[in-house]
Amino acid sequence: MNAIGEYMIVITDRLRAGRIGGHDIFKLKSYKIIPFSHNNMSLSDAQTGEEAAYISLLHTHLQSGEFYFSYEYELTHSLQRQAELRGNTQPVWERADDRFFWNYRLQSKLIDHTRRHKDQNLSGFILPIINGFVEIKATDIHKKPFTLVLISRRSRHRAGTRYFSRGVDIDGNVSNFNETEQIVVVDPIVNGTVPIAAGNYIMLAHVQTRGSVPIFWTQINNIRYTPKLQIFDNPQTGSAFRRHFETQKKLYGHQLVINLVNKKGYESPIGAAFSKEVDSQNDPQIKYHHFDFHHECSKMRWHRVSLLLNHFHNDLVDQGYFKAEVSRGAVQRVFQKQTSVARTNCMDCLDRTNVVQSVISRWVLNRQLQEIGILPPSEQLESSEQFEILFRNVWADNADVVSRAYSGTGALKNDFTRTGKRTKSGALRDLQNSIVRYVKNNFLDGARQISRTSSFSFSQTCPSILSVMSASGALRRFPRLWSTRSMSSYSLASNRDSFQMHPHKAQKCILVKGVQSPLNAVRLLSTMAGSSESWVVKPEVRLEELNSLSIKPYPRYQQPKVPAVQVKDIITDYQDTMESGTKDETKKVSVSGRIHSKRESSSKLVWFDLMQDGNPIQAVFNRKNYSGSDREFELAAKVFQRGDIVQLTGHVGKTKTGQLSIFITDSFELLAPCLHSIPTRSGLKDPEKRFRNRYLDFLVNQDALGIMKKRRDVIKFIRNYLDSRNFLEVETPILSTQAGGANAKPFATHANALDMEMHMRVAPELYLKQLVIGGADRVYELGKQFRNEGIDADHNPEFTTCEFYQAYENLEGLFSMTEDMLQEMAKSVTGSTKVLTNISKDETVELSFEKPFRRINIMENLEEKLGTALPDLEREPVAELLEICKEHRVFVSTPHTVPRIMDKLISHFIEPKCVQPTFLWGHPIIMSPLAKDIKLESGRTVAGRFELFVAGKEIVNAYEELNDPVQQRDRFTKQQNDKENGDEEAQPMDLAFCTALEYGLPPTAGWGMGVDRVCQILTGSSHIRDVLAFPTMRALKT
Question: Can you name the residues that pair with 799 across neighbouring β-strands?
Fold first, then answer.
């Protein structure tokens, strides 16, 4: 040991990652390495260099890894192991799981001292830290809050880098072993399935593991992309294999072993050796399945991962998951345990393993959320887009962290985990990462391996006494690794960050003719696989190029010398009348549009596809027909590119193959250049990118623009339908002092000129009825409403409705009118009364709008589903209704009012069954404060109201309007009481409207339609954002 001796590493700053069970979890942010001695005068130059190199290696590891700790929560243990340790009063470090106590080895001096000297307890200075991943996300589905936690713990045994650490050791420890635990923390308000003590909550957890194939094998670096594979014929293979699985079974129970390596080619010997060893052990507690991932999911058929779920379905059901009641982070009561574990591997236990583990966790999470009532039994996670995005990103982030720790780059195939599908841009990123892995794993991992294997420690307080190996001792232990290969042609730093290339560093050139080195390959691929908005060159470079060629990028528009025509008119006039191989040379036309694609046949012939208002036409640019100069031809042929907006003049004709075209003759001018690459249709599928860059979505996805045109047709039909029946269209205020007419939470604002609070309207109903009072017997409004509520597949804060009010009409008239309007609308917009629509991402149904529509009496149907009569709702039996909900595992968020509880029961038991057009009628009066009473033949009094549901969505709400001012005041008072009790959606008292009623509202029928949802159904769109030009999006984090 040299003069400098030992070091102490102290955490100087931390980031709060979140809370689990009321306990803070922290991530290492900064640290300090402190030598015990500052005297280095006795060191030689070589020793000083070694000392500096060693410290540099420690910095490399600490800065590139992810380290987490907690002063109270036992991060090294799964929740189930924590439950098994209940009653154990030992210090946290002594109870910690040795495998995941990352800094255990170099806390050993403190640990040994504490064990030897009972009167000198240093436990307060010993802090277990895990290396891995922790993500804690508070979220909700259907306004039911819960917390999703994902923890990956990396074993400190055989914790090396990719090619330096493979297989198993004699003690049964495997390389790259990670335990991943997914936890759901459920608020006691949400939990309706298990009675628990006040202030406690339910926690559910599920664990999976991954680790290298547990035999003796390695890959020997040989500078080739695929290193030499070597499997050792070691007589101790069986015992090492057995030790590994004995430990697995002791900790986790039965083993569901999923081997993902290829059955053919380079990897096949590993798969065969694993299968052979499993057979030789003949252990009934090991269920083994060899799933050739690359073969089964070839050609981007990634949905076939579900075959694994089918294979293990019964085993996963039997496996279950851990569920317990927790108080202040401590397990109080265990309801069930996880009885087995899925152990997954591929060659690296990274990319394929990441995909499979996320798929299994999704399946388990669906079951957990359904059991605790957050999801109804018929619903999947995909129904909540917000949570779907969160879930995918958490698992994708985990995949990247686990991968970087072992291979040096983010995970491959991670676009599937993050987006749910395999993409070409994802494949390009994989190629980039593969090249970086090749360089790092072959040329740089010697230093990384030393930094991982060298000893270090952490402490939560400064005055720690930690034993750290000296630099020269560490470097002498790893002479082969320290002598890292150098690259003959390149100077590459050992710091992994040198390979984080950015698009803005790309060369300023339009054509890249070759890749000269791995470094250039990384740079180029980083650009290609980066954001779809960036060219290889910066936008200003293209502008400089255009200016240097004397091409004005943004000229003032000039009317052409020949008639400017629309492409749709050319198609109408010529498509069916012109013969192939002919031209109309009697006249020239001018056409403007955007270049959709470009194909060069030769230096003298270029084909362009133009797009104008959704209509495509081909442009033939032939030097033989073009009257301009050679230079003008060459400039246009070479410089104009996909996305540019151009104007051209020529003859209409057809090619010999019958393609309608413009044969350019006189001019071909640039009107506006496109400075960014426009992705192909297949390259813009990610909803987040589509709707944040809607202009780009419309450019690339013609279907998106088609949906907007169908939306126009729907609105046009509604307006014509009502106008033809003598309805008066009006516009009522969007801002008012109070928002009434519907049970909804409004947006609030402040009018500076009036110095008063105002609200954006949630419905125009009360104003429209005042117009009827004023003598407008038939009145309607098509317009925007605003509700400050959730966003999901059927809801957007800003949405469009049509409401009409007709004097001297009743509910039966509205039934008939609704059926007639929807039947005629479907025929007008789609051409048929039978419409195919998507009720989810994966399910399409055919809807029939042929009248008559089905009708369901709500109260009778609900009592039939519940198997019991409902109590008298007028006496507000909240406790009885909540008991019914609890019995049927229906969650109702607070505040608990009769209207909210009844609405939840109806939405749970009846609405999902309404796929074909179905009227729900006979609502309880208490749910409809603006509707008249109707007494049925059964003697029950219900509201004069119906809702029309199609594809599980409410699209129409209709009433016989209450016109008794005394009853109206009474109902507003009850709503006001609900509002004061916390129901933000209850309607406010509107005295002005009650006064207007006193002047006499004739018997009136009122009707409202959600225009966006109708557009969803008629266009086959599964999400409301598809039918909105610019849907509301969550703000990006800066």
Answer: 785
Which residue type occupies 792? D
Amino acid at the residue 641:
Q
Q: How confident is the model at residue 513 (pLDDT cuts 50, 70, 90)?
A: very low
Alpha-carbon dihedral 425, 429, 435, 441, rounded to 10 degrees: -150
> What is the greatest pairwise CA distance in the chain?
108
Q: How far apart are CA 612 and CA 603, in angstroms?
A: 26
Round to whole Å and give the CA distance between 451 and 57: 5
State how far the Cα of 613 lies from the Cα of 593, in Å rounded to an integer: 8
Residue type, 473: G
Q: Which residues, other chains included, contact 546 with Cβ-Cβ below 8 Å and sequence gap of 6+?
A: 552, 553, 639, 670, 673
Output the DSSP codes for 933-989.
EEE-TTS-EEESEEEEEETTEEEEEEEEBP--HHHHHHHHHHHHHHHHTT-TTSPPP
CA dist 686 and 233 (Å) reads 48
Task: Give residue 388's identity as a one-letter amino acid code.
Answer: E
| Residue 442 neighbours by CB under 8 Å, 6+ apart | 163, 221, 223, 227, 485
Say whether 893 sits in a helix, a strand or coil: coil
Eight-class DSSP state of 607: E
**Buried/exposed 445-473: b ≥16 CB within 10 Å, e otherwise:** bbbbbbbbbbbbbbbbeeebebbbbbbbe
> Per-residue pLDDT tens for 594-652?
999 998 888 899 999 999 998 999 999 999 999 999 999 999 998 999 999 999 999 99
Question: In what side-by-side order are the strands of the sheet with 918-921?
Answer: 728-729, 778-786, 798-807, 1004-1010, 953-960, 945-950, 918-921, 854-857
- Enumerate the β-bridge partners of residue 148: 137, 184
What ranges in 167-303 are assigned the alpha helix state H?
237-252, 268-281, 293-296
**pLDDT per residue over 947-1005, tens digit each?**
999 999 999 999 999 999 998 888 888 878 877 777 776 777 888 888 999 999 999 99
Contacts of residue 251, Cβ cutoff 8 Å, sequence gap at least 6: 81
The C-alpha atoms of residue 643 and residue 610 are separated, in whole angstroms, by 9
Interatomic CA distance for residues 579 and 575, integer angstroms: 9
Judge whether 578 and 572 are in contact, CB under 8 Å: no
Picking from 311, 298, 397, 391, the residue whose alpha carbon sits closest to that of residue 354 is 397
Q: Which residues, in sequence order, are CB contacts of 654 under 8 Å at separation 6+?
A: 574, 578, 579, 580, 581, 582, 583, 660, 661
CB neighbours (10 Å) of residue 879? 9
Checking if the pLDDT of 457 tops 80, the result is: no
pLDDT of residue 828: 96
Beta bridge partners of 135: 150
pLDDT of residue 193: 53
| Beta bridge pairs of residue 650 | 589, 664
Is residue 486 within 8 Å of residue 38, measured between CB atoms? no
Among 60-74, 673-687, 949-963, the range with the most confident prediction by mean pLDDT is 949-963
Q: Shortest CA distance to 379 belongs to which of 158, 611, 753, 371?
A: 371
CB 470 within 8 A of CB 4: yes
Inter-residue contact 906 to 860 (CB < 8 Å): no
What span, in angstroms and rounded, lies between the C-alpha atoms of 936 and 887? 29
Q: Count of H helices and E strands in the chain?
A: 30, 34
> Could you tell me which of 577, 166, 86 has the C-alpha nearest to residue 347?
166
Q: What is the pLDDT of residues 279-313, one digit of tens each?
A: 988 899 999 999 999 888 887 776 788 889 889 99
Strand partners, 145: 140
- The answer for 794, left when phi > 0, alpha when psi is -120 to 50, beta otherwise, is alpha
